[in-house]
């Protein structure tokens, strides 16, 4: 059954790689993947915001002696203020406890913010390129190309966020080049398309590899901590959880309870009806236990 367009758009904006032909994931694993993606983005965000501020400063210096200095200052002020706010928030969030799972809405919010930043940078060539001197045009071209690379690197695990950031810059650059009737700009346009396409393919490849690696890691962790027959937590998982519970009880005065029970006459079942029947009994007991408890 085909999913409604609204649902598919929601999946796309939530970072679902199926839209790009990538691996499919289901909750709660998808939430854990999103948490890791957000953690990587938050770790890189302060540096990226500093790059935004420095690049905006470079642009202002390039236009300092021109009549468009005031407009350049206004444009750069928007970048500086937004980058400072986002950078401070990202640093604070990264220093807090890393969440085990992140909602789809968090990724959607990230994509929206990436688009807003990209749109602001995309306005740069549209507003200033056509009336600028050749030297300033070179500066604008370099800054636009650099910010496309920054966006691709920053959101390398979330392709839709990379697209949201880089596409407005690419479109703005293309519009600016098209408005200047100069044959010299044709090779620049070709290079820009090639550059953006190559970066996007690299982002997709990295995101696919990252997600697949995380899935394999999660499957490995699950195999280590689960009984093969019943899929219940095994002795290793029990010892791990018990140790954590004891630590929490000691450090944070948290209470916990330990319940011990056994299956009566289980050995007789195995001896009289065989190993297969005993295994079936364990599977059924495990299923009932899961239905009666949480987790």
Folded structure, characterized:
- By secondary structure, the chain is mainly α.
- It has two domains: 9-223, no CATH class; 235-292, no CATH class.
- Helix content is 75%, strand content 0%.
- It contains ten helices and no strands.
- It has helices spanning 5-13, 29-62, 69-95, 104-128, 134-154, 159-179, 185-225, 235-252, 266-273, 275-292.
- The protein is elongated and about 95 Å long.
- The two termini are 31 Å apart.
- The model has no long low-confidence stretch (mean pLDDT 83).
List the helices and strands and how they pair.
Blueprint: H1 5-13, H2 29-62, H3 69-95, H4 104-128, H5 134-154, H6 159-179, H7 185-225, H8 235-252, H9 266-273, H10 275-292
What does the oligomeric state look like here? Answer: single chain
Alpha-carbon distance between the termini?
31 Å
Provide the residue-averaged pLDDT. 83
Strand content: under 5%
Q: Write down the domain tally.
A: 2
Question: Low-confidence parts, pLDDT < 50 over ≥5 residues?
Answer: none
Number of strands: 0
């Amino acid at each position: 059954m085909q999913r409604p367009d609204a649902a598919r758009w929601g999946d796309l904006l939530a970072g679902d790689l199926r839209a790009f032909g990538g691996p499919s994931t289901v909750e709660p694993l998808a939430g854990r993947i999103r948490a890791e993606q957000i953690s990587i983005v938050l770790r890189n965000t302060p540096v990226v915001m500093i790059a935004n501020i420095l690049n905006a400063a470079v642009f202002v210096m390039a236009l300092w002696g021109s009549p468009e200095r005031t407009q350049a200052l206004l444009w750069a002020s928007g970048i500086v203020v937004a980058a400072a706010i986002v950078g401070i928030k990202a640093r604070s969030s990264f220093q807090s406890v890393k969440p085990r799972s992140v909602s789809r809405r968090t990724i959607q919010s990230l994509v929206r913010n990436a688009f807003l930043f990209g749109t602001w940078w995309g306005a740069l060539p549209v507003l200033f390129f056509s009336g600028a001197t050749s030297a300033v045009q070179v500066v604008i071209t370099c800054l636009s190309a650099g910010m496309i690379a920054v966006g691709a690197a920053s959101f390398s695990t979330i392709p839709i966020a990379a697209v949201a950031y880089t596409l407005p810059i690419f479109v703005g650059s293309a519009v600016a080049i098209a408005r200047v009737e100069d044959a010299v700009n044709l090779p620049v346009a070709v290079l820009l398309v090639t550059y953006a396409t190559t970066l996007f393919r690299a982002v997709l490849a990295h995101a696919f590899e990252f997600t697949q690696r995380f899935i394999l890691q999660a499957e490995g962790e699950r195999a280590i901590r689960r009984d093969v027959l019943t899929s219940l937590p095994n002795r290793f998982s029990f010892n791990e959880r018990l140790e954590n519970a004891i630590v929490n009880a000691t450090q944070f005065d948290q209470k916990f309870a330990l319940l011990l029970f056994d299956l009566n006459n289980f050995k007789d079942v195995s001896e009289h009806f065989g190993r297969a029947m005993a295994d079936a009994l364990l599977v059924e007991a495990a299923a009932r236990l899961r239905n009666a408890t949480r987790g």
